[in-house]
Design brief:
Elements lengths: L6 H9 L3 E9 L5 E12 L3 E3 L1 H4 L7 H22 L8 E6 L7 H13 L7 E6 L12 H9 L3 E5 L7 H7 L2 E7 L10 H17 L2 E5 L4 H9 L4 E3 L7 E2 L2 H12 L6
Parallel strand pairs: 2-4, 4-5, 5-6, 6-7, 7-8, 8-9
Antiparallel strand pairs: 1-2, 1-10, 2-3
Bound molecules: guanosine-5'-monophosphate and manganese (II) ion (MN).
């Protein structure tokens, strides 16, 4: 898209309900669904289908971005609350991408907890994914204290795009991280690239020592799945298992049984 949408465009889109979430299933090493990541999309009559990177570019939080983020949180908590009363899905976790500016204020933190409570959703089932690539030196001015407050309530923090950002070991030292999420950038050519294997092995060792969960995103082939499983990864997401989809959970259930019967849906 050539021009960034204006503040008015975004607020108008929110009002017109042009935003929606798709969910990509997350699998365990036994190929069972254990959760999903919510991904934001915008179907704009003017610009067409847009991904978050197309419209959440501003370095500084704008009113519209904060409102969109609040809508996303509301929607995922609602969904998590619904799963809580489903015998199969009550163990599923929900991962949601957040930006550090959503955690600037104590009020924002309280709002996340209040939203979870309102929908009867278990905080321990919520993973907040913070992308490492977003961090600048000094944590962009946001205080890790707020993340510690959420962590105390059971909410988990995943460092998305682990290893891609600035000073990533510093994040592990300062933030209450439960999970590191590694992009396919590090395992695209695992079988032919010896360096990739070593990097994955080192990350795995680091995660083991720090008792962090390891998740892989962008898993596209059975070979990648096998290698990452052996390297100690616990969570897998990618086209090999399932594309992000609209939340028709009976469709995902079908996807799960199709997967288990070994005809993988890409
Ligand atoms: O950074 P973030 O976690 O938001 O990235 C998720 C994005 O990656 C989604 O928009 C999704 O469409 C895309 N994606 C999901 N699975 C795969 C995959 O297996 N391969 C590639 N190339 N992209 C994927
Ligand atoms: Mn993510």
């Amino acid at each position: 898209m050539r021009h960034s949408p204006s503040e008015d465009d975004l607020l108008n889109a929110l009002e017109q309900r042009e935003f929606y979430l798709v969910y990509q299933p997350i699998f365990n090493p036994d190929s069972c669904i254990v959760g999903a990541e919510a991904l934001l999309r915008w179907r704009s009559p003017q610009y067409g289908l847009l991904f978050p990177g197309d419209f959440i570019k501003r370095a500084r939080p704008s009113q519209s971005i904060l409102q969109i983020s609040a809508w996303v949180m509301e929607t995922v908590c609602h969904q998590l609350g619904q799963w809580a009363s489903d015998p199969v899905k009550r163990s599923w976790t929900m991962s949601v991408n957040i930006r550090s500016h959503q955690l600037y204020t104590e009020k924002a933190v309280a709002c996340i907890l209040e939203t979870l409570q309102r929908y009867g959703a278990d905080p321990r089932k919520l993973y907040l994914e913070l992308s490492e690539t977003e961090f600048l030196p000094g944590f962009n001015g946001f205080s890790p204290t707020h993340l510690h407050a959420l962590h105390k309530q059971g909410i988990k923090l995943a460092l998305d795009n682990f290893g891609m950002g600035y000073s990533f070991l510093n994040h592990l030292k300062k933030l209450p991280v439960s999970q590191i999420k590694i992009d396919q950038y590090f395992f695209k050519n695992l079988l032919s690239d010896n360096n990739e294997q070593k990097i994955v092995d080192i990350m795995s060792m680091l995660a083991g020592l720090l008792k962090l969960e390891m998740a892989a995103k962008g898993v596209e082939t059975p070979e990648q799945f096998d290698y990452l499983k052996k390297a100690g990864f616990s969570f897998f997401q990618g086209y090999f298992f399932g594309h992000p989809a609209l939340l028709k959970w009976h469709a995902l259930d079908a996807m799960e049984s199709a997967h288990i019967s070994s005809s993988h849906i890409r």
